[in-house]
Design goal:
alpha+beta, Pterin_deHydtase, four-stranded antiparallel beta sheet, lyase, 4 strands, Gyrase A, domain 2, 4-alpha-hydroxytetrahydrobiopterin dehydratase activity
Length: 79
């Protein structure tokens, strides 16, 4: 995985884009993948930055393979 940080039982990364439209488009792509996986991120967006935190709620809010799989799918979007 690229620049994901594992801390406090979360995988997190902040992505920076050229502008709000690119950031929002990225979020839309992630939303489709997350929905198909039935694994939804905690995230926020401010202008051209998207911060994503992944944790598995039904596993006691810990990082699991579900989080790592979603993180890789997110990385693959940007590859």
């Amino acid at each position: 995985m690229s620049n994901w940080t594992e801390s406090n039982n979360r995988l997190s990364q902040t992505f920076k884009f050229k502008n709000f439209i690119e950031a929002f488009g990225f979020m839309s792509q992630v939303a489709i993948i997350a929905e198909k996986m039935d694994h939804h991120p905690n995230w926020s967006n401010v202008y051209n930055q998207v911060t994503i935190e992944l944790t598995t709620h039904d596993a006691g809010n810990t990082v699991t393979d579900k989080d790592r799989t979603l993180a890789k799918a997110i990385d693959d979007l940007l590859a």
